[in-house]
Write a structure and sequence with these properties.
Elements: E1 9-13, E2 21-26, E3 29-36, H1 41-56, E4 66-67, E5 76-79, E6 82-88, E7 93-94, H2 101-118, H3 137-154, H4 159-176, H5 180-187, E8 192-194, E9 203-206, E10 209-213, E11 220-222, H6 224-237, H7 245-258, H8 263-291, H9 297-312, H10 314-323
Antiparallel strand pairs: 1-2, 2-3, 3-6, 4-6, 5-6, 7-9, 8-11, 9-10
Helix pairs in contact: 2-6, 2-7, 3-4, 3-8, 4-8, 4-9, 5-8, 6-7, 6-8, 8-9, 8-10
Length: 324
């Protein structure tokens, strides 16, 4: 009613990280209604500004544009102690993990065009509130050890247990071996509002091509190489672990053709990627331990395998990156 909408029906609850979103259908149009708690409103306003910035830029992909309530200057409706947000649903299916060099290049171009568009986004209204914390090595190592101890103690022989027993020391030593100079250099890089969650489910495809981007629940200020390595991570492990140099070089080429990385950024991709993959592995293992989320075990295995592959082939991959 507050949006002036009639003749609608609720067509189910959305999945993903949001547990408070519903798909709303009416003749000729599908929209998403989202409930926002008071504590989340500041961050949702930040997301709305990012989406509006993309929609007003030359970003050549669809984003979930926000619908303003009738006669209101705000994008939110306040009702019964909660805030509500309505935005347009983007039709299509989730993107598939790249299967070849050209698909990886298309993904790299998407990420680069996002990062390029966000270079002109002014985040001064949220100074320091939404900044990514990098290189929490002690916390990551502590989480990895605690979760690995629990899993090895509570699981009989399993692929995850075997992967951890084989690779945990490598992960811990590699993270601990990231130098102070590398950490300082990363913290000196310019920052933008990165997307930070390039999972295939957040990318909308139609007719086999990338058409849109949804779910801005992870946007945060950080160096753009964090976006670069995050998307590359999912390109290699989205549904299965594909240690494919063609996917690696295709993604790098697709990104750098749109938005070249500096030599300093190229040199820092791998310290950041090792840090982020280890951190994400720890968080997934934590979910398995705390929520008994067995469905996440395949993802944890893929992350462990990816880390081992990156560590083993770092010199070759770094050379490919420098030459791209």
């Amino acid at each position: 009613i507050r949006w002036g909408i009639t003749g609608y029906r609720v067509d189910g609850k959305l999945g993903g990280s949001s547990e408070s979103g519903w798909r709303i259908r009416r003749p000729g149009r599908t929209q998403v209604l989202r409930k926002v708690t008071a504590s989340d409103r500041d961050y949702l306003e930040y997301q709305v500004m990012v989406i509006r910035h993309l929609a007003a830029s030359d970003f050549p992909y669809e984003v979930p544009t926000i619908v303003k309530p009738s006669g209101s200057s705000s994008h939110f409706v306040h009702e019964d102690g909660s805030n509500w947000l309505l935005y347009h649903f983007i039709k299509g299916r989730h993107h598939d993990q790249p299967a070849d060099t050209s698909q990886a290049a298309e993904l790299g171009a998407l990420v680069a065009r996002y990062d390029r568009a966000l270079e002109t986004f002014d985040s001064a209204a949220w100074p320091g509130r939404h900044t990514l914390k990098l290189f929490d090595v002690s916390g990551t190592v502590r989480r990895l050890h605690a979760c690995a101890d629990w899993i090895t103690g509570h699981r009989a022989s399993s692929p995850l247990k075997n992967a951890l027993l084989e690779n945990l020391d490598t992960m811990v030593n590699a993270c601990s071996g990231i130098s102070v100079s590398e950490v300082e250099a990363v913290h000196q890089l310019p920052t933008i509002t990165i997307y930070n969650d390039w999972h295939p489910w957040n990318i909308v495809s139609r007719s086999g091509r990338i058409r849109g981007l949804v779910d801005f629940d992870s946007v945060v200020e950080g160096p753009r190489i964090v976006d670069f390595q995050n998307a590359l991570t999912y390109a290699l492990i989205g549904k299965e672990f594909r240690p494919d140099y063609g996917i690696f070089t295709g993604f790098v080429g697709g990104y750098c053709d749109v938005l070249p990385l500096s030599s300093v950024e190229r040199a820092l991709v791998f310290p950041v990627m090792l840090d982020r993959v280890a951190w994400l592995t720890g968080r997934v293992l934590e979910k398995i331990r705390e929520d008994r989320a067995k469905g996440k075990e395949p993802l944890a295995i893929r992350l462990v395998e990816l880390f081992a592959w990156l560590h083993e082939h770092r010199e070759q991959l770094a050379g490919d990156l420098a030459a791209s």
